[in-house]
Every structure is written in C-alpha cells, then in structure tokens.
User: What shape does this take?
Amino acid sequence: MNPRRKRGRSSRARFRRPLGTVLVGGVLIAACLIGANLLATRFPKRWALPMGTASTLAPKTIRVLEGLERPVQVTVVARSGWPYLRNLQNLLDQVRFRSRWVRIDWVDPWLEPARAAAVASKYQLREQAVGMVVQAGDRLYRVDEFAMQRAEGAEVSMFDGESALLSGLVTVTSPSTPRVGFIVGHEEYSPHEYEPGRGLSDFSRALLRQGLEVERGEAIPMLAEGTRPPDVLVIAGPRKEWAKVELDLLRQFLRGGGRILLMLDPGVTTGFAEWLLEWGIFVGGNALHPLSGTWAQNLDLSPLVHVRLYPNHPVTASLNGIQTTFFGVRSVFPMDGSTDRGSENVVRWSALIQPMLIHDFEEFEEGFDVAATPLENRCFAVSFQGGAEDDLGVDLGKARRMVVVGDSDFLVNGRLSGGNLDLGLHMVNWLLGREFLLQRGPEDKTPLPPPLDRDQRLRLLTKGLVMPTVVLALLGMIIGLFRR
Assistant: This one.
C-alpha cells in the first residue's frame, strides 16, 4: 500500500476521533446542565450558610430551636408567585441552620399540582392556598398564609412567619397542650362572640395560633372538686357580682397553684375588690382621668389611655416604645405594708406583687408633674406570684400566678392593634410559665422584588443557561480541532 495513502487515512482517523469526543462531551455537558436546571426548578432547594451576626431570628426562636431533641418536619405549600415567598425562604434557611432536627419540604402547587393536592388532602389544607404544617410524631400544627402576616387594621403591614412557626414548634414538641378557660355567666366577654367591640374571638384565635386550647364555661362547673380545671382562667370584664361560693372556688384554685388573668372594668361592682385584698392588691372603683391624674366619678369623662413606657416586668419588657391603648381604666396597685385596708388575711409576705402597667402621661407632659402623682393614681395592672399550698398550708412546690388589669376592653374584637395583642398574649404566656415567648420577633420589612412571570422565567432560562452552554460546547469543539 502507498505509504502516503496510509498516512492520510490515519490522519483522518485521528481527526475524527477527537472531533467525535468533543461533540459527545459537549452534548453531555449541555444535557447535564439543562437537566440540573430543570430539576432545580421542579424541586427547589436552598442551603443555609452561617449568618453570623446577620441572623434576624428572635432570641426566643433560637432557644426553642437549640432545645429541640427530636425530628420536626415542616411541610410548606407555597406558590412561586406568593409575595412573601422570599421572606419565608430566608426564615426557613436560618431555622435549618440553627437546628439539625428540622427537615423542610417545599411543595409548589403551580409546578406540582398533583403532589400539592395530596398534601392538602393529607393535612386538611385548602387547595392552591399557601400553608405550612409543623409535625413531630403524631402531633400537627397548621399555619395558613394569613397567620404568617402581621396586620394593622385591615391592611397587612409585614411578614410575620416567625411567630407562626414558633407557635407550631412549641405546640408539637410540648408534652401536653395547655388549656385556657374563659369564665362566663356574669356577662363577661366570650371567646365565641364575634361582634366588633364586644367579643374576644380575635384574641381567642390568636391563642389557638399559640398552640393553646380555648374553652369557656361557668365558674362552678369549671372549678368544682373532681374536675380538671384549665391551666389558665380568664375572667374578662364581669358585669355582675360573683357569688361567695364562686369566689371560694377561685380562691382554692389560686392557692393550689392556679393561674388567673382577671380584667376588671371601672364602675362595676363584682365582689373582686374585697377578694383581691386577701392577696395584697387594691382595686379602685373609678376611671382614670389623665388630665388631672385623679379618678373621675363620671365614666364619660375618661378618655383613652395610651402607654408606651413600661416597668421592668417580664410581661412588658419587650414592649417599650410600642403603644398599647386602653378604653377607660381603674386603678390596680400593690398595697404597701403600712396600709391596712380592712383585710385580715393579706399574703404579701409569701408573694411578689409587681406593677405592670403605669400610665406615664406622656401626651400630657407639659406642665404636668408626673413624679408628684402617686403610684396609685397611675398604676392599673399588677402581677402576683407566690408559692402554692394546700388547705393545711403545706407548700406544693409550684407557683401560683395572677395578673389583674383595670380594663378588659383593650382585648375585644377590633382593638388588637399596636401592642394590645402582644400584651394579652404575653400575659397568658407568663401565667403559663412560657417566658421564652415573651419577646416580639424582629420585623422583617425587606422590600420584595416583583415576582417573575412565565415568559420572564423562560427568557432567564434561555439566556442564562442554554445559550452559555451551547457557546461553551462550540468553543470546546474549536479548541479540539486546533489541538488535533
């Protein structure tokens, strides 16, 4: 055979081998990159990096996450066009970084309609709606998209998914669900009343989101011997006087380590004024008139009371600078040791009584001497804490707690704006001994970019991945040709 022809055939073979290798390699690289992008679009995942001091999680959330001792599954159903999706992703990134026990599963109903429908059916969620399910073992906590938003009146002001997630974590990891019982029967506000300005249904729903059970009933059936009373009793604005037998049952409940939130409006005789003297707490009968620092006889002259500065109390420590509004209040303050107001059974020696709400007259500072105004003319809420004991006076080794507020209207429907809702929730959580929940989470007001539509996502896929991949493959083939 002619040596030149032999060398030509071997040159063409050497040329075909690298060219084929380059073509196959380029096609494989392009296929891998395009396939990876499609998988990432269908099954989005986010990896949290250490945030350092940039973390926006509240200290109470961090404590709960670091205290987890068993796996917690968080299933999120969120469509890609939801305005708060980015905020929720950032929140869950930090949660996953803080605890190895939290596993997060994302479902997009637009990309995975069949899987989203199955999740909605399994966890009883509304189809095509945003929702989150927190699960540990057989305990579930469901969160809808409205529970992940903090509202001011009728307008949503910011994302507040951290509070909802924290409530879910606490609920599913607690050994039992605390019960909050609302006493009715004396024209108290009811948790099942939905009328604006009257009922407590909005506050009741907030308690449910905190992972609590809510029930209502009359005092005697709820506190009778042999029954299991609620963990916290709420008495919201009674309009009729309590019977002696009811007050005796309430006394027995508190002595045995019970927890009570008592809210008394001005101008109403209920029987609690004498009953509270036993516990070292004095309750006035009239409404505060801030302009004079006195207690007005005419309730119509009592304007709104605004508080922005609070004593150093666990319930209100994180509320400083946040306004709470009250609608006519009566004085509630600790009795001093030198004052005898007719009680022969004062138990201040075994209790800690702290002022909780003090009107600072901030809006009337000009020409008004706040320091000269007695505390009893400014204080309208106190907390009581002491050791529990049985009928023989034997210490039971647990604490009894009570909060007394000179107003109940601040928690009714339509009046939970500002810090009112946080104050009510803090009171209940302090009574339950859940001090780790007595801090507001940071407000996430990061501006959100507008969501991408379908055409924008397609252009981003084409220009950002497909075209660069084709260019790289062509460059690889050209380089291979020159290196043959």
